Structure formats: structure tokens, C-alpha cells
Amino acid sequence: MSQRRKFIKQSLMGSALFIPGITAIAEAKTPGLFKGEKPLILSTWNHGLPANAAAVKKLKAGGNIVDAVETGVRDTELDMNNLSVGLQGLPDREGITTLDASIMSGDGSCGSVAFVRQVKHPITLARMVMENTPHVMLAGEGARQFAIAQGMPMEKEELSPKAKEAYEKWKVTSKYKPIINIENHDTIGMIGMDANGNLAGSCTTSGLAYKMHGRVGDSPIIGAGLFVDNEVGAATATGLGESIIRICGSFLIVELMRQGRTPQEACEEAVKRLISKNKNISDIQAGFLAINKEGEVGAYAVHPGFNYAKATLTSNDLIDSRSHFNP
Question: Which pTM value belongs to this model?
């Protein structure tokens, strides 16, 4: 299998990656893509650029990889221009913003929170669940009570100006229909590896806009929106959570890598599996991002338009990922 993977890598670089079914990204645009650079931080969408910068800064300051992936997405949770992450995010049908988040270390430690209100940093609360409780997930009022017990302040429950304006417009028709690559920018998922090869990941979101009150997506579900294993690699997901949950997307990718697939092959297989298990795929966007122990990277999505940020100690680049599916 190792010989097969070596052949694939050589073939990809020799053909500038223009091979059917493989993400078409020229090596010149993504320096080090197959060179196993460490430390390495990856995150979904263009808001991953400032998040990656914060993660790398944390590493340079002596933080570990779990510190880095927490710190990175905390930056996005505070971005008032981002309406898909944090308390400034677009609300549910009742006009209430609820948040989901998860964090996982390569040793199997993990924590998550779902359907949380009034907490500015759900990713930090998820880490508290991981480190300060015997549980993996807390939800709703229980998660809020735990946050209070941990000394986290409760924020005033009100919509941000941009979210309020959007919600008032939505109430005119009150029609729910996801918009490909716009409304479905509902997550930042981050995965990373330190200089010693230790892995960790984080995922945080305000979920789909105008969802039913109480709806929970893939982001806080270990194995769906995020999965990390120090023996193999890490994966995270973005997009319509229901479609990702149905195939345990991130766990699937890590297990495929365990069987010898490259991160790119594993992401592509996950997208194929997702397409086969979901109806009306023309209205669904979902993308995956993965890294293995060798520092190889994979990214793939149902539709074009998915991008991700890749950072090392010396660079931070935004990379476009393509899809093979045409509705």
C-alpha cells in the first residue's frame, strides 16, 4: 500500500494534479502540500485565514496543539462580520441564536456542547466538558448551567445588528431553503498537527439560519463534524449537517485513511457516500478537510465553491477545492 501511495503522489505532482476525480490544485499554488510540513494548521472557508493566524501565534507562544485549535476558532467566534459562527450568527425560526461546538485531541479525548445559548465561546465550553467532566457532550440548559458553574459570563440574549436585519427580512416569507455556499457557510472546522506529530481539531457554529428551534447539526457530534486519531489523522466537515451526520463523515474519512487511502482519496469517497445517501443533492453543499500523519492534505466538496486555509509557521494560504458533481 505504501508503494501505491508513493506512486499516486508522484503521479499527481507530475501531472500538475489534473487527474479526473482529484482536486485540481497546482503544486505551485499550494507549496508543501505533499511535503509533510509540521506544524500544520488547516481550517474551512476564508474565515480560516485569521483563525489559522491565531492558532499559529498560539503555537509560537508555546501552546500545545489543543490550545492552538481552540484559540484559532475563538477568533472566528468573535468576528462580528461572520453570521454563521458565534452569538452574532443568524438565529433559528424563533429568532434565537443557539450554538454548537466540539473539540478533540488525538489521544481520543473529546468534548462538545449543543444547543447552547448566551455563551460567547462555545469551543472553550466544549473543552471544559472534555477536561472537567466525565462526559463528552452537554446540551441546552444543562450546558448553560455548566458554563455558569465554570465561571463563564452569560451574554445578553439579543441579535447582532446584521443578524436582526436579516431575520426581519426572512420573517416576511418565513421560508426555509438553504442557499448553496452562502447560508451553508455554517461552520469553521480546524484541524492541526504540531511539530511532534500530535493532532487535534475543533469545530464551532451557530448552525443553519432559521432552523427549527432545537435543531443540532454535525458540528458538535464527534465522528460527524470532527474526528481525530493520533495514529492516523484528522478530518472535519462543513455544510448541511444532516447530510454529514448520515454518513458519520469525519470518522469515515479517518477510517479510510487508516485503511491506506490518502486524505484526498478519503475525502472524495466521503463525498460520493454522502451523495448516495441524500436526496435533492443539488440543494446540498457539504465539504470535508483532512490531514494524515505524514502531513498530506485532502479537501473535497459536493459542489464547487468550497475553499480552505492552510498555514505553517511561515505561510497562510487560501486554497480552492473543486468537486466532480454537477447537478
Answer: 0.86
